[in-house]
Design brief:
By secondary structure, this protein is largely without helices or strands. Helices cover 7% and strands 0% of the residues. The protein has one helix at residues 6-21.
Length: 241
């Protein structure tokens, strides 16, 4: 830099390098335990609307989308903290969706694509997720109690500390799913494929695992107390509690 002392020029260069080395996090990102970045339903009010032919705003954080129709829609909007209670998202494309802390209670997500979606801390109670594809998705700390996920593809999904009481995983493909410390009481998982799944300190009381394939799954400290219908135990490692 012409006319600039070398010491100052070096300091400017160093400062720029430091700034460039700081990882940038999207403003709407949330982690388990974080509060949404806005008040519930303080975003756009789109409750009950048919949005299947609409171009959605880029930011729908904390939007009111109760009962909205988004069937088959490709959704790229940020939905952190959004209220999608009772919404219809059948066949919706939600890959990489940012939906941490969202309410999807009784929502219809059947056949929806949810790969790599961030649903940490979300409310999915009684949601319909049959034939959906939430592989590599994040459900840490989420509540999926009473949800149906028959034939869903949940391989390598993260369910750490999640609540899945009474969830229906019939014939689901959950290879490598991480369910450590999750509450899976009364789980229905007949014929589920759970190869390499992690059940460390998982509660599996009264779970139906009849015909489930549990090869190479880890069950250290898992709680099977109460009547349980176990599937094949070949290749399981660890000692159930």
């Amino acid at each position: 830099m012409r006319g600039t002392p070398r010491s100052i020029a070096g300091l400017v260069t160093l400062s720029a390098a430091v700034l460039l080395s700081i990882p940038m996090t999207p403003a709407a990102a949330a982690t388990p335990g974080d509060h949404p970045p806005c008040r519930a339903r303080s975003g756009p009010h789109l409750a009950g609307r048919d949005l299947t032919r609409t171009t959605l705003p880029a930011d729908l954080s904390c939007a009111d989308l109760r009962g909205a129709k988004l069937d088959g829609l490709t959704v790229r909007s940020v939905l952190v903290g959004a209220d999608l209670t009772g919404a219809s998202l059948k066949g919706a494309h939600l890959g990489y969706a940012q939906m941490a802390g969202a309410s999807l209670r009784k929502a219809d997500l059947s056949e929806a694509e949810l790969y790599y979606a961030d649903l940490r801390g979300s409310d999915l109670r009684e949601a319909t997720m049959d034939d959906s594809s939430p592989y590599y998705a994040h459900f840490e700390g989420a509540d999926l109690s009473g949800a149906t996920m028959a034939r869903a593809k949940t391989y390598d999904a993260q369910f750490d500390d999640a609540k899945l009481v009474g969830v229906d995983l019939t014939d689901a493909a959950a290879y490598g799913a991480d369910m450590r410390r999750a509450d899976l009481r009364r789980l229905k998982a007949p014929k589920a494929r759970l190869y390499g799944a992690t059940f460390i300190r998982t509660v599996l009381r009264q779970a139906d695992l009849s015909g489930a394939q549990l090869y190479e799954s880890v069950m250290t400290g898992a709680d099977f107390r109460g009547p349980t219908s176990p599937g094949p135990t070949c290749g399981m490692s660890g000692t159930p509690g």
